[in-house]
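Example record

One chain of 207 residues, shown exactly as stored in the release files.
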Amino acid sequence: EGTIFDIIHLDTGNKNDYSDRILFYPHTNVVYGTHGTAMIRSFKDQLHVLNLEGITGLQIVVPFSGNPLIIKNYIAALKLAAFLHPKVISISAGNADVIPEERAVISKLHQENILFLAASGNEGKADFTNYPAGYQFKCVLSVGTKKGAVRIDYSNKADMYLEENFFEAGTSFSTARAGAVALKYMKDHPKDNCEQIRERLVNYYKL
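Predicted structure tokens for this chain:
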């Protein structure tokens, strides 16, 4: 209620230099060069979680590194996502260090009932999760990748794990797909808040 978008996905720049664009898309379109393709495939082909009609998304593509100017741009994009008040914010990026400005924005999302999904990282660490996925806040959910009932070797520790398949590899792709899964749960449990949806996802997709 009161939001334009069901989901906002933040992604990193890529070789096609989408870093200076904000891409509006319906899920029936393909978003080239970004992890958003995994989200679209999850809706359309793989998970069959929702009808495409009526689902609105915004993808914001920004560079992501330790450069101070790039961090400033990333924080601005994160603040924009929070301001637009979607049901879900997902991010296919991360690093090993806490960014105070990032932490401050994410710490308040549960007050707005926004579920935040982030990639756990691809360093293969069984006892560590990259940030922002590693923040221990209500409504923050780290996403990893599995093969069968086992965490796949490249995936860091996570709260929930999705199966790797033929069109995706890496926790960033799993995170984009997890956004589709989260919206399915929200549709099925419309009275649940973000913390309750998080608990459902963790209980079903944990290892």
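Notes: The chain has five helices and eight strands.
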